[in-house]
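## Example pair
The file below holds two records. Each record gives the amino-acid sequence first, followed by its structure token line.
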Amino acid sequence: MQVAEVVARRSTCLRRNIGAVIVKDKRILATGYNGAPTGLAHCTEVGCLREKLGIPSGERHEICRGLHAEQNALIQAAKYGIAVEGSTIYSTTEPCSLCAKMLINAGINRIVYRDPYPDDLSRLLLSEAGVTVERFTRDASD
């Protein structure tokens, strides 16, 4: 989770900084953070349309110029030909329903998240698909 937290620092989202790390056999396969597609202006440069329109968290993802951290991690793996089936994704925030569907289809079988996200459909889909979902909590030694 510490790696996901470091990756989240690269985020260019004005609302929430999220990092994700895909891991298999104790090896990092790919990372992602939320932000605009490669080569496009970031929200830090042009502002946030969802914020301007007063759209609550968890709604109207389609008008956001950014990709979610989980999406970017999956895209990075695909771009470099890295198979993620059977892996775990660590994310600083619980996935939304769109990311949940992508993670299911990519064969991710375990999700570990730190902060909850208001998306009951995501939880339902992941449960139905048999994906293990765990909330990360630090113990006193961390």
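Second record, same layout:
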Amino acid sequence: MAGNRQHIIHGLRDGIPIAMGYFAVTFSLGIIAARAGLTAPMGFLSSFFTRASAGEYGTYTLVAVQAAYVEVIAMCLVANLRYMLMSAALSQKIALGTSWFHRILMACCMTDEVFGISVAHPGYTPPAYTYSAALISTLFWASGCAVGIVAGSLLPQPMVTALSMSLYGMFLAIIIPPAHKDRNVLYALIASFVLSGLCAVAPVIGEWSSGMRTVMLTIVISAVAAWLKPIKTEPMEQREPSSSLEWPSRDRGQQS
């Protein structure tokens, strides 16, 4: 019990900075959700169980245009597939004796930031650490969305429009640095803009909903980019060990 209490304290400590950033991001998502007709409780629940900026933005956008359920589900699956990879990677940081129930719950807690601090945890990552970090950050994430929805219904329309633009700024801040460092990312980014515009006016594809076009373009462009320019990885024996992120060997037995 004393060990779990310490892990919970450490998780809350590391999760608070994440939570503060989450609140600012989901406030803008709340503005988008308000335009889609969601109430504050609906926004809180949807954000609490989703916790994905791109996935939620796509969901609220599709809800606003009354897209079909299958389009919303497909978009969420495509936008959030990376969490499956994160969960698989985190499984190597879980002690061998950890029950399948804890493993599933830890996978459900994954976000980009929670994954980052969980894999950086020295030694095996205790479930209590991931749970506490995910809980505090998720509460702020969901609360930010609910507050944004309330603000979207109270603030003047020019201010609401200005606040909604901040989310697009966040997306630009995410994609511009990688595109600046890697030409392949830049080419994929340019292709996505060009193809998105062409598909919107194409004879057949232009009749599809915007959500379906986004899903198909995401799959096609990412698949072509991965095929033409795969990321080169070094063999494990050639990699230099990292003292801060060195994962424990699986043959050392269960952590006490």
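Notes on the second record: DSSP finds eleven helices and no strands in the chain. The radius of gyration is 20 Å.
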